Amino acid sequence: MNTLSVKVTKKTVEARDIVSFELMASDGGDLPSFAAGAHVDVHVAPGIVRQYSLCNAPHERHRYRIAVLRDPASRGGSAGMHDAVAEGDVIQISAPKNHFALTAAPRVLLLAGGIGVTPLLCMAQAMAASGADFDMHYCGRSLSSIAFQAEIAASAYGDKVHFHADDGAAEQKLDIQRLLAANAVGTPLYVCGPGGFIDFVMQSARQAGWEDSQIHREYFGAAAVSNADAHAFEVQAASTGKRYRIPADKSVIEVLAEQGVEIPVSCEQGVCGTCITRVLEGVPDHRDMYFNDEEHARNDQFTPCCSRAKSALLVLDI
Ligand SMILES: Cc1cc2nc3c(=O)[nH]c(=O)nc-3n(C[C@H](O)[C@H](O)[C@H](O)COP(=O)(O)OP(=O)(O)OC[C@H]3O[C@@H](n4cnc5c(N)ncnc54)[C@H](O)[C@@H]3O)c2cc1C
Ligand code: FES
User: Fold this and answer.
1) Which atom, in ligand 2's list, is nearest to the CA of 304?
2) Taking burial as the number of CB atoms within 10 A of a residue's CB, which of 83, 164, 228, 279 is the most buried?
3) What percent of the chain has pLDDT over 70?
4) pLDDT value of residue 1
5) Are residues 14 and 77 in the same domain?
6) Structural domain for 43, as ranges
7) pTM of the predicted protein model
8) Is residue 128 part of a domain?
9) Tens of pLDDT along 72-122?
10) pLDDT at 228 (0 to 100)
11) How far is ligand 2, taken at its centre, from the CA of residue 178, in Å?
12) Are residues 87 and 147 in the same domain?
């Protein structure tokens, strides 16, 4: 696996439970270029790889900046970043990947919930640099949980960013219906944040006449999925013809790993795309938040960390 060696040159507390990390190439050179919406896979500790969105201006090549919210139920990703990664450390990351690209448009709406601000802050900087028009709405539980406030307020695009604190006065809260009504139907909308926030924004936009193709979203995590309805099925590795039985209480990834068939895995929740595997025959039962409805309907790939099968057998391109 190709990784980049980067040095943590700055670690800053940005808000309650949020720290940012400035990363520079450990050989002092330029880093690979990236576009707004990109993230990197960070190798936090052995066996723990987590995705973090780049939140600095996308024209910068001398550094990346990421910001990490501590998850109280962390298995080691965010907790490791907060507790064990310090200024001066050298860590391994992937080159930037982008599943949340900003498409050129004369005007866009950016809607951030909590730590979901990271890719959208990068988009705001890209839109500001290109001279395109945008409005960003950034919601948080309280002002103390809203990161980058001073930086945004002092920036050239500060007047386009509106902060909304859940525990603040009623008149500053996000009125999504009003916001949508004030914009042309179909204005490209980018949303990132907790699942409930994304779903609320998407539902409101659909009700206001937006098509799904005009709403772009990125989930950072998934709510625990109930596997109460799960049943056993088989998968077959196309390369060897070998079949494996997946019992109701195990994932495809787990069974294959036990049998020595390794598929790269990271989030185990169907949000990061690391484990995507091509499906050559059979019908997957998609349980991820990574693909959109159109991609699910094609049934030609799935996320074996959480998705299962509707058919008795899935033949996989492994
Ligand atoms: C494209 C992308 C970009 C991201 N960008 C950012 C960012 O900029 N900043 C940021 O802070 N985070 C970001 N994330 C989330 C980040 O990658 C980590 O998921 C997050 O830091 C939590 O990791 P953790 O190891 O601390 O928590 P985890 O141990 O992964 O736990 C996270 C939550 O999942 C639950 N959980 C534990 N095990 C499972 C399981 N097997 N199945 C389902 N749920 C489980 C836990 O109870 C907990 O609530 C991004 C994620 C993606 C996919
Ligand atoms: S490991 Fe993240 S989608 Fe499967």
Assistant:
1) 4
2) 279
3) 99
4) 64
5) yes
6) 4-93
7) 0.93
8) yes
9) 999 999 999 999 999 999 999 999 999 999 998 999 999 999 999 999 999
10) 79
11) 36
12) no
- Which ligand is nearest to the Cα of residue 41, counting in written order? 1
State if residue 305 touches ligand 2 by the CB under 6 angstroms criterion: yes
Residues 243 and 281 in one domain: yes
Concatenating the DSSP letter of every residue in the chain gives: ---EEEEEEEEEEEETTEEEEEEEETTSSPPPP--TT-EEEEEEETTEEEEEE--S-TT--S-EEEEEEPPTT-SSHHHHHHHH--TT-EEEEPPPB-SSPPPP-SEEEEEEEGGGHHHHHHHHHHHHHHT-EEEEEEEESSGGG-TTHHHHHHSTTGGGEEEEETTS-GGGS--HHHHHHTS-TT--EEEEESHHHHHHHHHHHHHTT--GGGEEEEES--PPPP-TT---EEEEETTT--EEEE-TTS-HHHHHHHTT-----SSSSSSS-TT-EEEEES-EE---SSS-HHHHHH-SEE-TTT-EESSSEEEE--
Please tell me the residue having the least CA distance from ligand 1 atom 9: 68
Name the closest ligand to CA 268. Answer: 2
129 plus 198 within the same structural domain: yes
Question: Probe ligand 1: pick from 21, 49, 52, max atoms within 8 Å of CB?
Answer: 52
Among 71, 94, 148, name the best residue to mutate to test ligand 1's pocket (greatest count of ligand atoms within 8 A of Cβ): 71
pLDDT at residue 223 tops 80: no
| Statement: residue 272 has pLDDT above 70 | yes
**Substitution site in 17, 51, 145 for ligand 1 pocket (most atoms within 8 Å of beta carbon):** 51
Do 84 and 112 have their domain in common?
no
pLDDT in tens, 32-42: 999 999 999 99
